[in-house]
Amino acid sequence: MIRNWSIKPGDPPLFVANDPHGFRVAVEARVRKNGQSAPKLSVTCSLKSFDLVLIAPASFLELNFEKIEFRIDTAAKMDVDVLLTDIKFVGPLSFVETLRDLIPLDGFSDPPYLDISAKGVDAGFDVALPAIAIGVFNLSNLSLGAGFTVPFIGQPLAVRFNFCTREQPFNLSVCMFGGGGFFGVTLDPSGIQILEAAFEFGASVSVNLGVASGGVHVMAGIYFRMEKSACSLAGYFRMGGCVSVLGIVSVSIEIYLELRYEFESGKCAGRATITIEIEVFMFSTSVSLSCERKFAGSNGDPGFRDLMGPRPDLPLAQELAQIDDSTEYAWREYAEAFA
């Protein structure tokens, strides 16, 4: 018999068992009496009629499962069957609740990709959505994705959801102005594993004169990432352009500037990259130059003793024992200047 489970007593349940007898494990072994053929083994493990609330009490997703079933047979590969009756976006994700009808709930029963390894099972699917165009307004490159990972040992089941991806963000354009972005989250019973989101905006102009064509774009945006207890927030600016002559010679250049704040270290990191690509006929080459600088925050700044003391690397008692009338150090020079 299985029961509801919560992380702390008194908290709303994270695992809700709608059927106390929904867990089943069946093992069947068949051996011929004459022993002339190898034995056949079949194992089936299933969990039926349960809900997974990630993460109670501050919930993001509520998954209603009809069943999760694994079947292993010596004569066939592992079969995974996951049936969802509903997906609800709650709490901070309630803004995507209207997208729920676009997600095929049977996508996991025959997923487009299924990876089974010694570590566990990973399955999921992606759905491309049609573009929306109304006059000068155009919203394109839309997609929804979902997946789950079931480790065999150690880790709990993890569920992920994304609206577009970092590699393929959605595109929003109004005349010459445009932007894009994406959102993704991975959850398990212990909390948020990865949450990242980005949005950018700017302008893009292109021109085609027949023998030559080109374009230029200027974009600025923000990017947020939280991985367990580590967080970072970045603002970036990118500018680029390209030109092509008769489709024979093309040149492109892009400048990327980023300023990122790391919450766990209290530091700011700046990064600048310039990329130049040249293509002639079937040959192409590109060169990238980048530099990065970090600026210490409040928890990384040197203290008064580090700046003015004679030997801040020593324990305080040893440092004081070395100071006499002939010792020279920054604080003594400063004090004697006003004596």
Kindly describe this structure.
By secondary structure, this protein is mainly beta. Among the domains are: 93 residues, no CATH class; 34 residues, no CATH class. Helix content is 6%, strand content 58%. The protein has 3 helices and 19 strands. The strands form 2 sheets. Strands 6, 7, 8, 9, 10, 11, 12, 13, 14, 15, 16, 17, 18 and 19 form a 14-stranded antiparallel sheet that branches. Strands 1, 2, 3, 4 and 5 form a 5-stranded antiparallel sheet that branches. The radius of gyration is 30 Å and the shape is extended. The mean pLDDT is 78.
Largest sheet: 14 strands, antiparallel
Q: What is the rounded distance between the termini?
A: 84 Å
- Tell me the overall shape: extended
Mean pLDDT across every amino acid position: 78
How many strand elements? Answer: 19
| Helix residue percentage | under 10%
Number of helices: 3
**Rg from Cα:** 30 Å
Q: What structural class do you assign from the helix and strand content?
A: mainly beta
Order of helices and strands: EEEEEEEEEEEEEEEEEEEHHH
Q: What proportion strand?
A: over 45%
Q: Uncertain runs with pLDDT below 50, 5 residues or more?
A: none
